Amino acid sequence: MVNPYNTALSVTIERWPIAGHFAISRGAKIEAVVVVAELSQGAVRGRGECVPYARYGESPESVAAALEAMAPRITAGLTREALQTAMQPGAARNALDCAFWDLEAKKAGLPVWRLAGLPAPRPLTTAYTISLGTPESMARAAAAAAHRPLLKIKLGADGDPARIKAVRDAAPAADLIADANEGWTPDNLAENLTACAAAGVTLVEQPLPADNDAALAAHARRIAVCADESVHDRKSLAALKGKYDAVNIKLDKTGGLTEALMMAAEAEKLGFQIMAGCMVATSLAMAPAMLLAQRATYVDLDGPLLLAHDRENGLQYDGSLAHPPSPPLWG
Fold first, then answer.
1. 8-111 with 124-322: one CATH topology?
2. Can you tell me the distance from the alpha carbon of 329 to that of 117, in angstroms, rounded to the nearest whole number?
3. What are the residue boundaries of the structural domains of the chain, listed by start?
4. Which CATH architecture has domain 8-111?
5. Contact 259, 227 (CB under 8 A)
6. 165 included as an active-site residue
7. Which pTM was predicted?
8. Catalytic residue status for 154
9. 2 falls in which pLDDT band (50, 70, 90)?
């Protein structure tokens, strides 16, 4: 099919310094490396941002190459709908899917939420992440953020009960989400969940490795458990029944907003609560996720708050209250 608009694709790798450092059970980093896909039809441009994740075999270079390989098909008239089968779920498809949504919105002069048949987005309270560290360093970080209503504490190392208690003592009024990033084992699961319950933790995210999470089905617990690394797109949902109570939907895993919205609907039918999550990235990555987050029980879209600076026209954050994007940013 010939594309009458001669859509062009450009791909860039960008590096955004993190304020301090960001640490989870798999390691630490001092910058967010993102890949931006931009589609243009004349003067009209649409953008999408993704974060390549080594956990899934992605690198900035491999993602950029996968996007650039799509350029001939885009010029030939590839649509957002056809993209869903033309590329596999993952970061590259996310950037391109969100760029298509942005381009469609700017061509139509309508916001993405209208094009998608969604309600108008409203401001939402996001979690704020406390990086993995010693109990003392995490307590200091939690004390500095104790005014925020929801904290997400990174765990997944020996001595996590002490970290949990230290954070709770430092931020007694905040709701807490604990994220182990696959760092616990079936042997210490009960001890760590008991510590979370004692501290009043609301949700525990991905306590066990994705390929060794069967113990969750047999473990009686008082706290809801959320899948992250164990869930990707709609196809992965059915296997989670009985093990998880909630699923963390991230656009970099689903391969874009299109699949994320369908996945959220399917997750709800299966009885899962929804977390709208993110990688550490700029507001361009958060903007489409804000539409998904409108139906989420838990919102974790604090990526720009962790950066030394955000991109122009970024999301407005009033403390932990994230506002919907403006058209110059996305959508």
1. no
2. 20
3. 8-111, 124-322
4. 2-Layer Sandwich (3.30)
5. no
6. no
7. 0.95
8. yes
9. very low
